[in-house]
Write a structure and sequence with these properties.
With 493 residues, the chain is mostly helical. The protein contains 21 helices and two strands. It has a domain of 208 residues.
Length: 493
């Protein structure tokens, strides 16, 4: 049956689509091929999530070499959920990108954009489903190299600087990660993650394991923009094309967070990371610093996309705060916020792109009066902002509530207080948009009022509707997150 090959096809389909698009050298054909590949990836992700929910983890041996000798793709409730998020965001972004990217990049380079987006998608999906530590590094580089160029395609010349900065820091992160993997390989003699987890307990000298974990944490921390390793993110999100900003904000850092979860909980195990080593308190302190410092930085920004970028650093802090608890409820909250923030920030960046197209930019001088000139877009943006705050009825509330409950259950009242207090800072930067859009008049040189074209607004509004739906009907995401946490913590070790 074809379905038994879904773990590999999930990666192969967008990977093959990329060179096909280059050979076609057509923007329209590139868009059609990308949309078809993303739809196929989404369908396969749904099937894999259903299959893992019903019958547990799926192991797929590449080239019929059984693990741990051959490369294994291993799909469980955790990475199936991550793959679903990545493919769903790609499927939403692509209809939006046809109009948005044409305006920002130009017709002659459109096919290259779609080819690179498919490479990035293949890399992110590969990171999610692979069960091999070095194979993960390969996919990490595939997605990163494509991302550097996608960011550089931005029409502002500062996009080149942002891409170069990300390239340097991303390369350092990848080097640190592969160094950590090398230490683990020397200690265990395997690269298969499940086999590595089983062998770690028998390693007599624990020093290479501690060093390996430190290298991996620092390397993956750079990729997920863990405070204070986030320097690359604000410029990258602010100056990349709008469709790229939306895709990366919703997926790239979330996949990197998944890698950290997989290493901590599935490979090393809760006791090794949070009892034998002091990573829990360290991660908690860095996370709380992100909540307050990045949120404060968001408040003083003069550009909407940069505000959203700093908000992303803060919101990642909530996810890593859940990880730092080292418990099943904390990990459940972290996975739930990973998903909910992914759809929320994807919607907000899509809306910001629509604003850029119609208002001529995303500076707050261009946002003024948006409640009158683009009323639907402004209202949708406010709804997304409410999710960042964590207002009841939005996706952000469901996962923040789960995080607060997990912190209180573990006796960490100060963490619950930090979550509530930092949400007040989110109120401040969301209010900044509200005040500018609804209580100021549009600038004198503002273009004619009106919403962005339907092929941009429909995907943005659909993702905004998903934000509200995930808040009003929170149980599917929370149940899927609980299953994901169980899969991450229940791996053999």
């Amino acid at each position: 049956m074809l379905s038994q090959h879904f773990p590999i096809l999930l990666v192969v389909v967008p990977l093959i689509a990329s060179p096909v698009i280059v050979m076609a050298r057509s923007g329209f054909l590139g868009w059609v091929a990308s949309l078809a590949a993303s739809a196929a990836a989404f369908a396969m992700s749904v099937a894999l999530l259903v299959a893992t929910t019903e019958s547990g983890a799926i192991s797929y041996a590449i080239g019929s070499w059984p693990p741990p000798w051959g490369i294994e793709y291993r799909v469980d409730a955790a990475n199936a959920l991550v793959a679903l998020l990545v493919s769903a965001i790609a499927l939403v972004v692509l209809p939006y990108a046809r109009r948005s990217v044409s305006a920002e990049i130009g017709q002659e380079r459109l096919y290259l954009f779609y080819a690179l987006l498919m490479l990035c998608l293949a890399g992110l999906l590969g990171i999610a489903v692979t069960g091999d530590a070095f194979n993960l590094f390969v996919f990490l580089e595939i997605s990163s190299l494509a991302t550097y160029v996608l960011i550089a395609l931005g029409r502002n010349r500062r996009a080149l600087t942002a891409a170069y900065q990300y390239l340097i820091l991303g390369t350092i992160g990848a080097t640190l990660y592969v160094t950590g993997v090398g230490l683990l390989y020397l200690a265990t003699g395997t690269l298969n993650l499940a086999d590595m987890a089983a062998r770690l307990a028998d390693v007599p000298d624990k020093r290479p394991l501690v060093a390996g974990l430190a290298f991996i944490t620092a390397g993956v921390g750079l990729k997920l923009a863990l405070f204070p390793l986030h320097a690359w993110l604000p410029n990258a999100y602010a100056y990349a094309p709008s469709a790229v900003s939306a895709f990366l904000a919703a997926t790239a850092t979330k996949v990197a967070v998944y890698v950290l979860m997989r290493v901590y909980f599935s490979v090393y195990g809760v006791d090794a990371v949070f009892r034998d080593m002091p990573l829990g308190p360290v991660l908690a302190v860095l996370s709380v610093a992100a909540l307050f410092i990045a949120s404060a930085a968001a408040i003083v920004q003069k550009d909407l996309k940069r505000l959203l970028a700093y908000s992303s650093v803060a919101q990642i802090g909530y996810i890593t705060l859940g990880i730092s608890l080292g418990s099943a409820p904390g990990l459940t909250a972290a996975v739930a916020h990973l998903v909910n923030h992914g759809i929320t920030k994807g919607a907000l960046f899509l809306l910001a792109g629509a604003i850029a197209l119609r208002a001529g930019g995303t500076g707050f001088d261009r946002v003024a009066g948006l409640g009158r000139t683009m009323p639907l877009t402004a209202f949708a943006f406010v709804l997304g902002g409410l999710s960042l705050i964590g207002v009841p009825g939005t996706a952000g509330f469901a996962s923040k509530w789960a995080l607060v409950a997990a912190a209180i259950g573990a006796g960490h009242w100060w963490i619950a207080a930090a979550v509530l207090l930092s949400s007040l800072l989110a109120v401040a930067y969301v209010w900044k948009f509200v005040e500018c859009a609804y209580f100021r008049g549009p600038p004198g040189d503002a273009p004619d009022p009106g919403e962005a074209p339907a092929d941009m607004t429909i995907p943005a509004f659909a993702l905004t509707a998903a934000v509200i739906a995930a808040g009003l009907f929170a149980w599917p995401v929370l149940e899927a997150s609980a299953r994901a946490a169980e899969a991450l913590m229940g791996a053999p070790r």
